[in-house]
Amino acid sequence: MNTDKKKAIENGFTYMATNVAGVTAGGAGGQYVENVSEAIQQLTDGMNSYSGSNLGIGQLKGFAAEQYHAGTFNINAALRGTTNRAFVNASTKHASVDISTNFEKNYSLKYYADATLSAKNQAKNVIQAYHEYLSKSNTSSPMSFEEYIETYGYSSDMTELLKSVYYGQGRIIPSDQLSDAIKYLEREIAKESTKQGANRAALLENYKETLKNLSDRIKDGNGTESMPLTKEEAETIAKVCKEGKFDPKDFGLELSDLITTKYILQQAAKAGLTAAALSVVIKTVPDICSIVDHLIKEKEVDPEQLKKLGLDALSGSVEGFLKGSIASAVTICCKSGKLGAFMQTANANVIGVITVLAFDTMKNGLLVLSGKMSKEEMGEAFKEESYVTANAISFGLAGQALVPIPGIGFVIGSVLGTVLGTTMYHAGDQWVNSFASNANYFINYYAELAEIDIDRFIEETSEYGLVVKRMNKVKSEEELRSVLRSSYELLQIKLPWEGDFDEFMGNRTNRLVFS
Fold first, then answer.
1. Can you give the pTM of this predicted structure?
2. What is the 3-state secondary structure (H, E, C) of 67-78?
3. What is the pLDDT of residues 85-143, one digit of tens each?
4. Using CA of residue 453, residue 454, residue 456, residue 457, what is the dihedral sign?
5. DSSP 310-373
6. Long-range contacts from 157-162, C-beta under 8 angstroms, 24+ separation
């Protein structure tokens, strides 16, 4: 194999490693946003399924609460990247589970008029449930107690009959009733603790079990929770649902607001790790092949090749992580609407590839500034990467159309486009020249930057590094405000308003002025 062809193949693998980092991270970011968006849509569909219901608000609020708790739990799960999910069972059978989950936890919801009623109904035992059945029965010959327990599969043992019919389930009640409900159960526990007898002991255990499982939200034990809901809020939602006009934005469930900086950084880090692993594997393939080839021919391993392999793996890992993280973060910002509605329609994989191209351009620019790369070399690198990237995107979109599996088709097409693009470039394809004007622009741009005093530049920008470190340690909105205020002072940036912000914004004649 001649030197030019070998170089073309090696460049192909290098660019392929680079593009795969962007494609996979961009695709992962796009899928993340899609998962959150889907969870929001499922909540919306569930709420509006009660459109035109004949139920009164008093009864409908309980069903709305079920949808709300399951839906907001699933949204939170999607935001946190966990596979745990909650499901509304929509069953009206005796002692049925209202919300089931895929993490072995079931829930009963009671949204009654006050805390005592909600708590009582969560703690009601089989005997109390039977008397409730009798009071609501419309038949002249209701079931006897023996028939009742046989119908619903209860034991005749008194200890079992004094257990809550929701025994073992999580008990959810309105958030504004939780405190008083806990006090009610604690009073009943204190009362039963002073009484003797097996039946009293069974009642005592029932109240304790109910209190232990009482909450105002679904919890998976690993940080994912549903959003608490008051009785009044449940009634408001029920009214909207009955009209089929539930809009998640009205309840603070808008995609761009839910995907906060914290979640973007978490997903970017995950995507970066995946991209780093892929970059290492792909980038070291040519070196591994060379080592094997040398071993077969010379009957020994070349130490220099092993050394090069280690360096390639290290650089591929670090660079892959950075590119993957950035590509994922940019994609999530685009697809979640943080950069405007127009960018939401952009292809996630394409965003990833273009982000990698931008990263490489900036990296090469810094190499020019530090004297490690000439302006001509940077121009040539940009011209080649632009050409190869265009091929990667074109073939990626074609591959996505041929293999309609999310992300997979684009990756396959992108890899093929990258290898072919690199080969064609080094084969002297004339179409490459169309990128010359872009390359010349960047050459001229960095020619101006080359005149910058690097030491002075580093000194002046060190303050920005300090600001970034402070922001990385922020744990609350109040801390963030404090850091931002002090950062403005440190960087001597003039605030775009004067005096108190709320008062300033309250005057319609005032305008923010950024200097």
1. 0.66
2. HHHHHHHHHHHH
3. 999 998 888 899 999 999 999 999 999 999 999 999 999 999 999 999 999 888 888 99
4. positive
5. HHHHHHHHHHHHHHHHHHHHHHHHHHTTTT-TGGGGS-HHHHHHHHHHHHHHHHHHHHHHTTSS
6. 158/198, 158/199, 158/202, 159/198, 159/202, 160/126, 161/125, 161/126, 161/127, 162/125, 162/126, 162/127, 162/199, 162/202, 162/203, 162/206
